[in-house]
């Protein structure tokens, strides 16, 4: 082997030792930990995630169903009117619309609705005895407190609240019973109530 060949082999060997050393150094040296704050996210990906969330919210909002409950309030001319208040309705949780609507009506306006001037003529001690949903009709059976006290004007108003709420939330005829008896005459004043309930039930 010539002198030049020996020098070349030594040089190649030296280079290989350096390469092996560098590889070994990288393999065994501890690497600095990368924290989440150091990970850069592009503006585009962030915008897409936000838009995705908005789409989900809009989709959920579109799937919501509402039921209208009739209370009383004032219009822009300060005139007393029947106010339809929207309530979120979920069939799987709340049952039928008529059952949910009458329950909400008897409970009365929420505090935020009262703050806007919405009120009810239905006495606070009114209770639902039961609501019977039959194939051809619905019977709403309330306790006597519903038709007791407040005077004739108040009684008319609470009956109209019930009539408007019931008619809006049932495709079947709705009948009012008080303490298990069909309420064709209500209150101490003997107000005639034609049934099933309709907007003309009190026009006698």
Q: Tags for this entry?
A:
single chain; 204 residues; alpha+beta; four-stranded mixed sheet; two-stranded antiparallel ribbon; 8 strands
Give a brief description.
This protein has 204 residues and is α+β, with helices and mostly antiparallel strands. It has six helices and eight strands. The protein has helices at residues 3-28, 43-63, 91-94, 97-107, 111-114, 151-168; strands at residues 65-74, 80-89, 128-133, 138-142, 174-178, 181-182, 185-186, 191-192.
List strands and helices in order, with pairings.
Blueprint: H1 3-28, H2 43-63, E1 65-74, E2 80-89, H3 91-94, H4 97-107, H5 111-114, E3 128-133, E4 138-142, H6 151-168, E5 174-178, E6 181-182, E7 185-186, E8 191-192
Parallel strand pairs: 4-5
Antiparallel strand pairs: 1-2, 3-4, 5-6, 7-8
Helix pairs in contact: 4-6
| Rg from alpha-carbon coordinates | 38 Å
Quaternary organisation of the protein chains: single chain
Number of helices: 6
Distance between the termini: 130 Å
Task: Give the proportion of residues in helices.
Answer: 40-55%
How many beta-strand elements?
8
Compressed to H and E, one letter per element, the order equals HHEEHHHEEHEEEE
Unreliable runs = 30-57
Give the spatial strand order of the biggest sheet.
Answer: 3-4-5-6
Biggest sheet layout: 4 strands, mixed
Report the principal-axis shape: rod-shaped
Strand-residue proportion: 15-25%
Let me know the average pLDDT: 79
Structural class: alpha+beta
């Amino acid at each position: 082997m010539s002198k030049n060949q020996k020098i070349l082999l030594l040089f190649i060997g030296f280079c290989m030792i350096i390469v092996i050393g560098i590889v070994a150094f990288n393999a065994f040296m501890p690497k600095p930990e990368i924290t989440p704050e150091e990970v850069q996210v592009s503006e585009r990906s962030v915008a897409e995630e936000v838009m995705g969330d908005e789409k989900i919210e809009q989709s959920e909002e579109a799937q919501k169903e509402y039921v209208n409950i009739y209370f009383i309030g004032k219009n822009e001319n300060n005139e007393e009117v029947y106010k339809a208040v929207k309530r979120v309705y979920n069939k799987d949780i709340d049952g039928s619309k008529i059952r949910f609507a009458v329950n909400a009506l008897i409970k009365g306006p929420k505090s935020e609705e009262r703050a806007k001037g919405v009120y009810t003529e239905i006495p606070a001690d009114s209770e639902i005895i039961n609501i019977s949903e039959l194939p051809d009709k619905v019977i709403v059976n309330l306790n006597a407190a519903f038709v007791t006290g407040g005077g004739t004007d108040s009684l008319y108003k609470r009956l109209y609240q019930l009539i408007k709420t019931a008619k809006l939330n049932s495709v079947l005829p709705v009948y009012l019973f008080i303490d298990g008896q069909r309420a064709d005459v209500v209150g101490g004043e003997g107000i005639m109530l034609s049934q099933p309930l309709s907007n003309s039930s009190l026009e006698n």
